[in-house]
Write a structure and sequence with these properties.
Blueprint lengths: L1 H8 L3 H20 L5 H6 L5 E6 L4 E6 L3 H10 L1 E4 L2 E4 L4 H9 E2 L12 H5 L3 H14 L4 H8 L6 H6 L2
Antiparallel strand pairs: 1-2, 2-5, 3-4
Helix pairs in contact: 5-7
């Protein structure tokens, strides 16, 4: 019967067999896939940690992933309103993210918002390593960073403070 159907449709038997096998595999996959429930997601411990070597400071720094709400707050903190338009303000962007992610061995934050200027004034090399690790823990890709900075222009304040 299969040969007759293939002949009627003008399909080679081999192609029809592959098509049927594909349908069967898809049905088996759909049966075996277990979709997460609301409670599975909300109760999952999805916190991740990464340790970053900072030999310039004499040791390692532990970073912790942040929530989606904290990432949104971070990204929002990089925007400023000027004359009715929104512009990126990347001043201390690295330090801001590090403050959100750096924790001690017990998971308590190492820094507070009051440390922003002092941390931002530290050596750029370890700040860059920490920022790269922190943005990955926050789920920020290179493309995300590029999109955030693509329309970045120097503000009047930046021009005055640049060397």
């Amino acid at each position: 019967m299969t040969e007759q159907v293939c002949d009627a449709l003008g399909l080679p038997l081999r192609m029809a067999a592959g098509f049927v096998a594909g349908l069967l595999l898809r049905q088996l996959w759909e049966i075996s896939v277990a979709f997460l429930t609301r409670s599975d997601i909300l109760e999952a411990d999805d916190t991740r940690y990464e340790t970053v070597a900072c030999p310039e400071w004499g040791g390692d720094v532990r970073l912790r992933s942040i929530s989606g709400a904290k990432r949104d707050a971070y990204e929002s903190s990089l925007m400023e309103e000027r004359g009715g338009s929104r512009k990126m303000n990347l001043r201390n962007a690295r330090a801001k993210l590090i403050i959100l992610t750096a924790v001690d061995e017990d998971g308590r934050p190492l820094f507070t918002a009051d440390d922003l200027r002092a941390l931002g004034a530290k050596n750029a090399a370890p700040l860059d390593r920490l920022f790269d690790a922190a943005r990955k823990l926050a789920g920020m890709s290179d493309d995300d960073v590029e999109k955030m900075t693509e329309n970045f222009g120097e503000t009047d304040d930046d021009a005055e403070s640049s060397v």
